[in-house]
Design brief:
CATH topology of the largest domain in chain B: PmbA/TldD fold
Structural class of chain B: alpha+beta
Radius of gyration of chain B: 24 Å
Distance between the termini of chain A: 59 Å
Keywords (chain B): Hydrolase, Metalloprotease, Protease
Number of domains of chain B: 2
Order of helices and strands of chain A: HEEEHHEEEHEHHEEEHEHEEEHEEE
Helix content of chain A: 10-25%
Strand content of chain B: 35-45%
Number of helices of chain B: 10
InterPro entries (chain B): Metalloprtase-TldD/E_C (IPR045569), Metalloprtase-TldD/E_cen_dom (IPR045570), Metalloprtase-TldD/E_N (IPR002510), Peptidase_U62_metallo (IPR051463), TldD (IPR025502), TldD/PmbA_N (IPR035068), TldD/PmbA_sf (IPR036059)
Radius of gyration of chain A: 24 Å
GO molecular function, one term (chain B): metallopeptidase activity
CATH superfamily of the largest domain in chain B: PmbA/TldD superfamily
Family (chain B): Belongs to the peptidase U62 family.
Shape of chain B: globular
Largest sheet of chain B: 7 strands, mixed
Number of strands of chain B: 24
Strand content of chain A: 35-45%
Structural class of chain A: alpha+beta
Pfam family, one (chain B): PmbA_TldD_2nd
Number of helices of chain A: 9
Oligomer: heterodimer
Chain lengths: 438, 507
């Protein structure tokens, strides 16, 4: 479907819903294309291609609300779908807080190009893409006798979306992605440790294409001989690509729904210092080439750059129109975009060199965080650190604590930002973490 | 893309209030009444047998060894309650066909969301590219296979209106609030799903399945002084509307309030290694993580599982019998045919302590020269089938729960979980304990909560030293994730003693 066809269909769906009893309607139509190839043992193991379409519609009928989606986009079928959805909505209870956003807050167009779409998406040679996966595999095959299995994948895709609301919003967005991934298993005693590495990019030309297999192999070999160490309170460094597992619960706790439903450990903490003053994070939707960059959010609200945490003070809740009305607060956008950390002066090696006794966490294994209280416990693997040096690989250990305490005990924030994600996270050193092991 | 984590989650917390659960509303998008024969499924998907044969021929046109077509029409509806009212509903329709071509153990896959002859043939040609010769392919016949009937229901969700479902969700809210004045918020949901599946392959097998599913539950949030705690409780089955009752509402509401209450008293155990008693029921998560995933034959075929060289070997005490079963009546993990059209079995993974079978899909069964076990499953027509679990449980053993608990001097008793995970190669698995109890001098004493437990699969299996006679399946909303695909499963266990695991806690 072309962009214009999507706009036309969205407007038709809105009219049809309004004619059949809805007072307000929001429609979003998307299509996406993706492909992937996985190689093993110098052969293609899996080749996948996909084209997908979706229409989703939010209905506001006599103060009642429902939301629906379908991939059956023929008008004849959509008509019945919308009529049935409206009829069903009438059986729900009224909800005075449900409305479309205030049109004043909508994105009005003419934003800058955030470079989220590679317009050359269809022009790259498919054989070259398959060769990239073979190349990543070749970097590993035969390089060490302990290797059991190597697989490498290339994948790419693009999404295009158009959104229209009955009170005046019209907008479209598109993004593309390309990625390479390698996974290596090695034999070490009875265990078969595995490790993976990946790189991704929004533009094909920017994708890092070499060294991925090699990095996965290095990481796998370093895991041989993993053993738990004795339980104790120790320093902990979490690698930049892994820290999101511990940072995620802080962002979830800022969610308007969690705040309003009292299911967050940050209820009533806006403006208060809860965490270490070393924690400063900004939500910046306007980073060029940013993986989370966008001009408007899922409701059509214009995005803004916002402070999330400032020197440990909570500065933002993520509030959409609905929870804004329930909480009597201004909407700030219901979800995060790019998260930018204020960084410190050291890279990962620099952080390790400062630790007398501790653990560098390079991977998590299960675990969870209680959103109401911030109590957490996670399985970890990584390396024991002694006198500033990495020692034996460790695994089968847990860390346990509370998010408020953990993020109050930041020793140092690194400067080694991971650019493969919309969360631009550095490695972080924490002090006094409870490890359980032998 | 490939990931080294296999995760297992119970949909929990506030997620249920959002779009994660997609349950219903819409009666149909096609006006064909489905009955139990293949003709009605062909009509439903607006295809003919001749057309299927033509598409298979296109899929095999480049020399593939095997091809299959998986048509699916899934309708999901969900009702949600927040702040005292059933004030939101969600629905989703997914319709399409996945086309897969195998050449040896190589897979080509494409799907189409439209079922016109051109669209199907085009998708088939894309999938065919995995092979690259010009083999002739002779058309195959139609070998109709009537599927098993593991989940007969009397009142189909498609015939039930929103009006009929709303009162149950409302009653859940009212009941939870009535039970305890500490309750400050209640979320409740009711999600139903109906899938139609039509399957045809290059061996001529033509079969179909009708798959109903219902999930019903609540999140209860309670406050005592400054402290807030939450509990999530739900049940899920392949059952119809007849399953809902006021008794069920009562049972779930009591469970939620009791669980949340327990948390206010809870403490943390000492960090470190200790005996762990797994309570009957949801503790089956131990089998799912410690054993189930590492028995999936795709990992073993590639040599990447820690169990890769253990077939036929003794891996546990002789009273340990572990099963993966797709045939339990109305169970969330049951399927009448798997997503590769195969019959489904009750499969002994460990029999009398000996590793007896892996969990197979078509590719791995062929690799190992065994019959498929009916474990080839996929999230939807958009995904490739993989070896996946169904209901995974352990049979009863010779001990009693009291024997087991009184055997432990200091340890933990755990029976309520939210999620788990495993590293296939290292064999390290974890599960997160929402609540349980300390065991001190052979007695359950203080409650514990929010701790992760970690162990190593082969070691933990060998360390199961006692198994009680109280086997029970847990019918929660268990969902298993692998390679980005989610499938519904269940698990079960009698009370079991694991001699030593590493328990998260305070130092």
């Amino acid at each position: 479907m072309t962009k214009q066809e999507k706009y036309n269909l969205a407007k038709w769906a809105i009219s049809h819903a309004l004619e059949n009893g809805a007072q307000q309607v929001s429609v979003s139509i998307s299509n996406s294309r993706s492909s992937s190839v996985e190689v093993r043992e110098e052969k293609i193991d899996k080749l996948e291609q996909a084209i997908q379409s979706n229409l989703s519609i939010q209905l506001f009928v006599d103060k009642k609300y429902s939301s629906h989606s379908t991939n059956r986009l023929k008008k004849e079928e959509l008509a019945g779908f919308i009529e049935e959805a409206i009829a069903g909505t009438r059986y729900l209870s009224e909800d005075e807080f449900r409305t479309l956003p205030d049109p004043e807050l909508y994105y009005k167009g003419n934003g800058q190009d955030l470079k989220t779409l590679d317009t050359g998406f269809d022009t790259y040679d498919p054989q070259r893409k398959i060769d990239l996966a073979f190349q990543a595999e070749k970097e590993v095959r035969g390089k060490d006798e302990r290797i059991i299995s190597v697989s490498a994948s290339y994948y790419d895709g693009m999404n295009e979306r158009v959104m229209v609301t009955s009170n005046g919003f019209e907008g479209d967005m598109a993004n593309s992605y390309y990625g390479l991934h390698a996974q290596v298993s090695v034999k070490g005693g009875d265990a078969r440790p595995e490790a993976s590495w990946s790189e991704n990019a929004i533009f094909y030309e920017k994708l890092k294409k070499a060294g991925i297999g090699q990095k996965a192999l290095e990481r796998a070999l370093k895991k041989i001989g993993q053993e738990k160490v004795e339980s104790g309170k120790m320093d902990m460094i979490v690698e930049n690509r892994m820290i999101s597992r511990l940072f995620g619960p802080l962002i979830s706790a800022l969610n308007g729904s969690a705040i309003q439903q009292k299911n967050s450990f940050l209820v009533d903490r806006l403006g208060e210092k809860v965490f270490s003053e070393k924690l400063t994070v900004t939500d910046d939707p306007f980073i060029i080439f940013g993986r989370g960059s966008r001009l408007f959010d899922g409701e059509g609200l214009a995005t803004k750059k916002r402070l999330v945490f400032e020197n440990g003070v909570v500065r933002n809740y993520y509030i959409d129109t609905y929870y804004g009305k329930k909480l009597k607060m201004e909407p700030t956008g219901g979800s995060n975009t790019n998260l930018v950390f204020k960084t410190g002066g050291k890279d990962l090696d620099g952080l390790v060199s400062t630790v007398e006794k501790g653990i560098l966490v390079t991977g998590f294994n299960g675990g969870n965080c209680n959103g109401s209280t911030g109590d957490f416990s996670y399985g970890i693997e990584g390396f024991f650190i002694e006198k500033g040096q990495l020692k034996q690989p460790v695994s089968e250990m847990n860390i346990t604590g509370n998010m408020k305490e953990l993020w109050s005990n930041i020793g140092e924030i690194g400067n080694d930002v991971n650019e493969n994600s919309s969360w631009l996270t550095p490695s972080v050193l924490f002090s006094g973490v409870d490890f359980s092991g032998a | 893309m490939g990931t080294d984590r296999r995760s297992f989650i119970k949909l929990g917390g506030t997620a249920v209030a959002g779009g994660m659960l997609l349950p219903p509303f819409l009666q149909s998008c096609q006006n064909v009444q489905i009955s139990g024969n293949v003709k009605s499924y062909l009509d439903h998907f607006e295809v003919s047998a001749e057309m299927l044969q033509k598409v298979i021929a296109a899929a095999m046109s480049k020399g593939g060894d095997y091809a299959d077509l998986f048509f699916e029409h899934k309708k999901s509806n969900s009702l949600g309650l927040e702040d005292g009212k059933v004030n939101r509903a969600y629905s989703n329709i997914g319709f399409g066909v996945g086309i897969r071509v195998l050449k040896g153990d190589q897979t080509g896959f494409a799907y189409s969301e439209t079922v016109t002859p051109d669209a199907l043939v085009n998708a088939a040609k894309l999938a065919a590219n995995i092979a690259n010769s010009k083999n002739g392919f002779s058309p195959v016949g139609l070998n109709e296979k009537v599927p098993a009937g593991y989940y007969n229901i009397s009142r189909k969700w498609e015939d039930i209106s929103v009006e009929d479902k709303v009162p149950f969700v409302q009653k859940m809210n009212d009941k939870v609030f009535a039970l305890d004045e500490k309750v400050i918020k209640v979320n409740a949901f009711l999600s139903d799903q109906t899938s139609y599946v039509l399957f045809y392959n290059s061996e001529g097998r033509l079969t179909y399945d009708y798959r109903p599913m219902i999930s019903f539950g609540t999140v209860c949030i309670m406050q005592k002084d400054e402290r807030v705690e939450n509990a999530y409780v739900a049940r899920s089955f392949r059952r119809g509307f007849e399953w809902l009752s006021d008794g069920l509402v009562d049972e779930l509401a009591h469970e939620a309030v009791d669980q949340a209450n327990l948390l206010f008293e809870a403490t943390k155990p000492k960090a470190g290694e200790m005996p762990v008693v797994m309570g009957a029921g949801g503790s089956g998560i131990l089998l799912h993580e410690a054993i189930g995933h590492t028995f999936e034959a795709d990992f073993n075929r590639k040599g990447t599982s820690i169990f890769s060289d253990k077939m036929g070997k003794k891996v546990a005490e002789s009273f340990v019998n572990i099963i993966d079963d797709g045939t339990l009546e109305n169970n969330r993990g049951s399927i009448n045919i798997d997503d590769e059209g195969n019959d489904v079995q009750k499969t002994y993974l460990v029999k009398d302590g000996v590793l007896n079978s892996y969990i197979h899909d078509r590719i791995s069964a062929k690799y190992y020269g065994v019959e498929p076990t009916g474990n080839g499953r996929r999230e939807s027509f958009r995904s490739i089938p993989l070896p996946r679990m169904r209901a995974t449980y352990m049979e009863t053993g010779p001990h009693t729960k009291d024997d087991i608990v009184s055997n432990v001097d200091y340890g933990v008793y755990v029976d309520n979980f939210s999620n788990g995970e495993v590293k296939i190669g290292a064999g390290d698995f974890t599960f997160f304990v929402k609540s349980g109890y300390l065991i001190e001098k052979g007695k359950l004493t203080r409650p514990i909560k929010d701790i992760n437990i970690i162990g190593n699969g082969p070691q933990a299996l060998a360390d199961i030293t006692m198994v009680a006679n109280d086997y029970r399946i847990d019918n929660g909303t268990w969902t298993c994730g692998k390679d980005g695909q989610s499938v519904p499963v269940t698990c079960g266990l009698p009370t079991v003693l694991v001699k030593k695991l590493t328990v998260g806690g305070s130092v």
